[in-house]
Amino acid sequence: QVQLVESGGGLVQPGGSLRLSCATSGFTFSSAAMSWFRQGPGKERDLVARIGRYDWNTNYADSVKGRFTISRDNVKNTVYLQMNSLKPEDTAQYFCNANIVFNGEYWGQGTQVTVSA
After folding, report:
1. Which of 9, 26, 39, 94 gives a 20 to 30 Å CA spacing to 45?
2. Which residues pair with residue 21 across a beta bridge?
3. What is the pLDDT along the chain (117 residues), one digit of tens a residue?
């Protein structure tokens, strides 16, 4: 069965960095477009970054461009989100998403990121 397990969240001061990981299993990782979403308190879940399944093209929300980098390792079946220059407004639950060709969309359980002094 498809599993997505996020890790790497935590408490960080403004200006700091975190690296989120999403370890996957149960599907052919290379056949999935992978994304990171986030949901702050009382807010909708929004796309943060996406990396394509074949061309590895990346897309970012305007609010994180230049600060966040999404990457994938098709050997380790893992997608990463490197987050630099973190701001309090980046505080949210971060979710990994897999859009698997001919299979559908799947979500991880989320990892909390809190940016606070």
Report:
1. 26
2. 7, 80
3. 999 999 999 999 999 999 999 999 999 999 999 999 999 989 999 999 999 998 889 999 999 999 999 999 999 999 999 999 999 999 999 999 999 988 899 999 999 999 999
